[in-house]
Design goal:
Distance between the termini: 35 Å
Keywords: Magnesium
Protein name: MobA-like NTP transferase domain-containing protein
Order of helices and strands: EHEHEHEHEEHEH
Organism: Celeribacter baekdonensis
CATH topology: Spore Coat Polysaccharide Biosynthesis Protein SpsA, Chain A
Number of domains: 1
GO molecular function: nucleotidyltransferase activity
Helix content: 25-40%
Largest sheet: 7 strands, mixed
Length: about 200
Amino acid sequence: MRLLAGICAAGNSSRMGFDKLSTPPSLHAPDTLLRRAITAAKGHDILVALPPDTHPYFASRRAILRPSDAFICVEQADEGLSATLKSLAQAAISGGYDGFITMLADLPFVTAAHLETLVVLFETFEGTQIVRAMSQSGRDGHPVIFPASVLPEFETLTGDHGAQDLIAKYGAKRVEMPSEAATWDMDTVEDWRQM
């Protein structure tokens, strides 16, 4: 099955006060959050959603991408995650993909192994079910894989709520990960310090 890994990296990092996606978290972890997300998606077609090229973080995020990493600019990124998801879902539809993997760039501990576990289940259901990562403590997280049949409904998404309404409508097969990686996101300076 052909899957598009859409990496959501168009946000403002507004709670951080700096660009969390392109700044290495420490001298001991010189890779960036965006690079980690791209690495986790290896083996799949990747499309990175960046802010508009006039955004102050565009250049630093674009510089992290390899020449082979495709990207789009989300002109309405300030409208919330839904604008990013709409743009990525439209690209998956246009590309004729069997499914769309939503990946949040601020989940630093999601790995390629986590993603492949989800892909195996998605393929087991022949690409007909939403498949979602869940932390070992039972909380819903990311990545999430959506079948092609659901993608046109991404146009109905609004705000920063993501695709929660679609998951509620169609249900999801959940895969428990052996850690909190699916839900450990970097949203605050305190999260950054814990990294």
